[in-house]
Specification:
Layout: E1 11-12, E2 17-22, H1 29-39, E3 46-47, E4 51-53, E5 63-65, H2 68-76, E6 80-86, E7 89-94, H3 96-102, E8 106-111, H4 116-122, E9 126-133, H5 134-137, E10 151-153, H6 157-175, E11 176-177
Parallel strand pairs: 2-8, 2-9, 3-8, 4-5, 9-10
Antiparallel strand pairs: 1-11, 4-7, 6-7
Amino acid sequence: MTNTAEQSPHKPLSPGLLVLLAGAEARGKDLLIAQARRRYAGDPRLEFPARLQTRQSAHDSEHIGVPRRVFRDIERAQGFAVSWQHADADHGLTAGALEALDAGRIVVIAVPPAAIDRFRAIWPNVEVIPLASDVDAARPSSQRTPHASSVRHSGDIADAVRRFNRVLDTLAARQFSTARG
């Protein structure tokens, strides 16, 4: 049996929230998502869907590698809520993620910054969490985008994990009330 927001004592205050952890390649997005998936495994308010991609990935469960032919068949059958290209691979989030959003849940996924607009086109309630590093901080301030919910990664992954968890906790508190409705 799958937990849903309706089975929880928490009631969503608004439609589901799509949370995009966005950052450049090799910034640790997948590691933060994998850790959060474990930490919030029993929390029915949050979902961390796996995404399909045309490149094999043995290091985590967030990516499911499929041949390009299979990926294209799923696209033609409109089986993706959204798909995008990044790092010489095609990526797709299955339409099942929309069901979780329709149920009022928070859906969290790591994406490259170039894909953000594709997600905003499919869901009205999107929160982008920029993942920045010391390399990003070294850029002139005119080239940086400040964000209240950003996660800084300066080589201390444990600190980045704590920061990301605080952001998710804040978003969950904002998204859900603890009173029964």
